[in-house]
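Dear Dr. H.,

I hope your travels went smoothly. While you were away I took the liberty of generating a structure for the chain from your last submission, since the lab meeting agenda had it listed for discussion. I wanted you to have the full record in hand beforehand rather than looking at slides cold. The sequence, exactly as received, is reproduced here:
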Amino acid sequence: MGLSDSPVLVSIALATYNGGKYLPVLLDSLLAQTYPHLEIIAVDDRSTDNTRAILQQYSSLHPHIKVYVNESNLGFVKNFEKAISLCNGEYIAMCDQDDYWLPQNIQRKVEAIGEYPMVYCDSFIADGNLEKTGKKISDALVCKTFTNCLNYAVFSNVYGHAWMFRRSLYLSAPIFPLCMTHDWWLAYHGILNGGVKYLPEPLALYRQHTENQYGVIGGGGIDKKTKKQRKKNKKKVNKQKEVEDARKRITLFYDICPNDLQKEKRVLYDLKRSYSSFSLSNNFLRMITFFRNYKLLLAVRKRNTFRKYLFCLKMFVKLK
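The corresponding predicted structure, in token form, is as follows:
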């Protein structure tokens, strides 16, 4: 399909919070997109730096940039939920405030999505100065077209900046739960509604820096001292909350999995049971379920078979 045949509006949902340091570079890359029919919906989550001033300056010069400011801080998941709810386009792309999109980003996704509800591309990994590290997301994770919901039940290769999806997909899942990231929730629905298509082209620079909240890939672009500090901070995370989130997540995935997907429903049911406690029987069930279905459950993990077996063994004493 050529662009001249497509008047389809694409909305870019941008959620911001104290992103003034990187925001102008991101906005300039959005304005440089070759796809001609865009709107940019920016929702600021009560930033205390110059983020709002930057957004308002760009909006005054470019009417297709619409700026909203939350009355109170919502957190990044609910902020993206609000930004997406304000989008008018048939297609919606999510955008992180610190990344950089190549000019053909939206154009190539519109051309590639076909009948799929969602499409995602590869990305270059960059450091805090937006210098390429020589690696791509596909070097760290398995990136391909996924069509089985078990592929996203335990892990995901979801990075919101790389995705574009149909508005109809969002309307099927408009309330984002807090036990997982917003992009994981939408991707799981995408895989249930026809699959998630992979576009094997790096169309963005994914910036890795000390302020990243989520999505750091192997510490790419981050110095050893920062990696050590991240590891230390991770140990301070409330482990009980991680366990509760995993339980809620697998329960949601089980509940929305259609009954006609009998194998997938059964595997999710067994995981749901095994996640309910760390009893001996549940630990054994969880481990066996992973062993029997590791090719599906660990599909996005770029690990050899031996390392995947080791992961399955660990499931006897932990939840993921």
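Two observations you may find useful: The chain has two domains: 7-222, 237-314. The two ends are 41 Å apart (CA to CA).

With kind regards,
E. W.
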